[in-house]
Amino acid sequence: MENNLKINEAFGEKCPVRASLALLSGKWTLMILFQINENVMRYGELKRAVTGISEKMLIQELNMLVENKLVSKEVYPQIPPKVEYRLTELGLKTLPIVDQLAEFGLANLV
Amino acid sequence: MENNLKINEAFGEKCPVRASLALLSGKWTLMILFQINENVMRYGELKRAVTGISEKMLIQELNMLVENKLVSKEVYPQIPPKVEYRLTELGLKTLPIVDQLAEFGLANLV
């Protein structure tokens, strides 16, 4: 036990779990990544898919995801404006985490 | 795309990812589960291992984890009191999620 503790402590600020959680532990973050998944989604579709999220929170989360390079946003200059979101290469790499959340939920919660 | 959307929407409140996140998306939740891991940990060890967490937040999180049956708590009636935490059978099943977080962090963040 002591050994294991020391290994985890040794990571300190470099702990990979901590680093991932700093990026992904928002209440809605992984849910949004899960819903976009391998799709190209318009804002309205995403809003319907992530049921229960407020407009303000969704916009805030999407901005954060774009800033952190997990999601890319394409704005088409047309009327009405069309905005599409998709996962970046980095964002796609979070899907195995989402898969494990789904598996845990299916087996134990729903 | 539309099909996939409908599949995800169909889960509604039964969405397994949503259910898992309701349980696990706290800022410190998965970090604490990761640190306890397969160990038996005393409160003080846990406090040192989860660097940066406040005493109040750690106690609150541990109570939540015990209430949700992810962690079991054993109090030994001695002086000074000894309190040990370990993952329950359900808690151990979250470790594959933590593993994916670690893998993502190692490959992309740290």
TrEMBL record, chains A, B:
Superkingdom of source: Bacteria
Residue stretches making up the HTH hxlR-type domain: 15-110
UniProt KW keywords: DNA-binding, Transcription, Transcription regulation
The keyword Zinc belongs to this UniProt entry's keyword annotation: no
Name recorded for this polypeptide: Helix-turn-helix domain-containing protein
Higher taxonomy: Bacteria, Pseudomonadati, Bacteroidota, Flavobacteriia, Flavobacteriales
